[in-house]
Amino acid sequence: MTGSNPDKKLTEDERDRPKKSKKKQKKEDAWRPDGPRDPFAMLDSLPEKKQQELQKALHLFYLGQSLPRNMQQAKKHTYRFWDTQPVPKLGDIVTTHGPIAQGEASVRMEAYSLPQGFSWDTLDLSNPAALKELCTLLNENFMEEDDNTYRFNFSQEYLQWALQPPNWLPQWNCAVRVQTNKKLVGFVAAVPADIRIYETEKRMVHVKFLCVHKKLRLKRMAPVLIRELTRRVNQQGLCHAVYTAGIVLPSPLSSCSYWHRPLNPRKLVEVSYPGLRLKMSLQRALKLNRLPEATKTPGLRPMTKADVGQIHSLLQTNLSKFHLSPILSTQEVEHWLLPQEDVIDTYVVEGHDGKLTDVVSFYGVSSTVLNHVVHTGLKEAYLLHIACTATDPADLMEDTLVLAKSKGFDIFCALDVMDNMSFLEKLKFSISDKSLHYYLYNWMCPNMSPDKVGLVLPN
Questions:
Q1: d(CA 417, CA 400)
Q2: Are 206 and 191 in contact (CB under 8 A)?
Q3: Hey, which bits of 158-253 come out as E strands?
Q4: What share of the chain is helix, strand, coil (3-state, %, to 5)?
Q5: Closest residue by Cα to residue 419 from 347, 350, 346, 319
Q6: What domains appear along the chain, each with residue ranges and CATH number?
Q7: What is the pLDDT of residues 123-156, one digit of tens each?
Q8: How far is Cα 362 from Cα 400, in angstroms, rounded to an integer?
Q9: Is 299 left (phi over 0), alpha (psi -120 to 50) or beta?
Q10: Alpha helices of 235-358 — where are they, by DSSP H?
């Protein structure tokens, strides 16, 4: 070829490949690594539609490949991290009680290493800006449904309630940030709790809100978060923890089921609420789930601060019946049960003599409904405590459903723990396909059935 440069001869493939516009080539070049980059810059350079496709693919891969949802899947799974931790192995039959590993004489002082480009932080939840950041991280990345149709919408007030009980410690709000722009991309927290396990009382922590940004879920950051939180807890002389998860890890102490009671069936059908089994027409569902217009229990009223002492006695008597239960102080009863709008509701039954005979409480969690033409949000109520000495639990619970509906909740959720099975079916709750598994860290004891669990842990 006359005048051609032999060093620039095109291959046959290159000749056949269509030429790209400069704009398109520039966009592709932005995706090519050309040295250390902000971990998010590469994804953010892609078109929005492509970002959504990748996020959904990563999310589904994360759920499908890494998180077994039942024991059958768990038996085929390799737990690279949990096999190194002081927890019972799957399939172990435990008959003894006690710690799995003794506390170390010296606790590691330096933080665990993070992947390049990230750094540790301790979130100051008294700082409104930090609290807002945490809301954003959790609301965009925490436990989103598999089909990306719902995600939690935690309020700042809810997170303060969940993460700041009496004796909480700021250093147990363990966070990960991107070094370049300080973006919050990982979080896990612990709050102190006194727990009764069979006949043993232990000071431990409740681990909650483990969350990693969707774009980082394949970087195995969750195990590093857990290790670092464990180190920080160990520094305070504690080496045991209780936690729950919707996935199977080594090894569940108890496995419980969620039960759902529709309060607004029409809306639940319209948004295709996950796990709800309404095998009937809408009109039939509306009729079946109809509730009374008003409550029936005499003396039923909202809790006040003056009720804390009597409620404490009621709960401690009731909770002592179970193999796994919290040991609550009066300060903790006040924190966890005193009503806060859109966070926690508690009602008591007061007798003619002024003595409280019954108590029931539920907390509320809002969710965002994605990509729906009519509905943008959903309100779910979760049963926290119910203790009855004079009122039939089914009657008190029916009144609770009436009250929850009047407050705008769309569905009422309860676990089959404690004595709840005495009223769930009677009040037309239906079992969902979602399970919640209870775990203890560094403690072994025999497994227990859901009705022996007296502990509900709000996330």
A1: 17
A2: yes
A3: 173-178, 184-197, 200-212, 241-245
A4: 30, 25, 45
A5: 319
A6: 96-242 (3.40.630.170), 254-452 (3.40.630.170)
A7: 999 899 999 999 999 999 986 554 567 788 999 9
A8: 9
A9: left
A10: 265-270, 282-288, 308-319, 330-337
Structure tokens at 306: 């003056």
Provide the β-strand partners of residue 325.
Answer: 196
* Single-letter residue type at 390: A
Q: What is the CA radius of gyration of the chain?
A: 26
Tokens of 457: 């842990």
The tens digit of pLDDT for each residue in 334-353 reads 999 999 999 999 999 999 99
User: What is the spatial distance between Cα 332 and Cα 192, in angstroms, rounded to a whole number?
Assistant: 11
Give the span between the Cα atoms of 427 and 439, in whole angstroms: 29
CA distances from 75 to 87, 248, 328, 443 (A): 16, 10, 37, 22
The amino acid sitting at 107 is V
**Which residue in this structure is represented by tokens 């919408």?**
153
Q: What is the DSSP letter of 130?
A: H
Helix and strand counts by DSSP (H, E) for the chain? 13, 14
Alpha carbon 303 to chain centroid, angstroms: 26
The pLDDT tens digits for 245-297 are 999 999 999 999 999 999 999 999 888 887 666 667 788 888 888 999 999 99
Tell me the CA distances in angstroms from 418 to 160, 200, 246, 324, one per residue in order.
27, 19, 19, 10
- How far is CA 129 from its chain centroid? 22
Residue in the structure block whose two tokens are 């727990």: 195
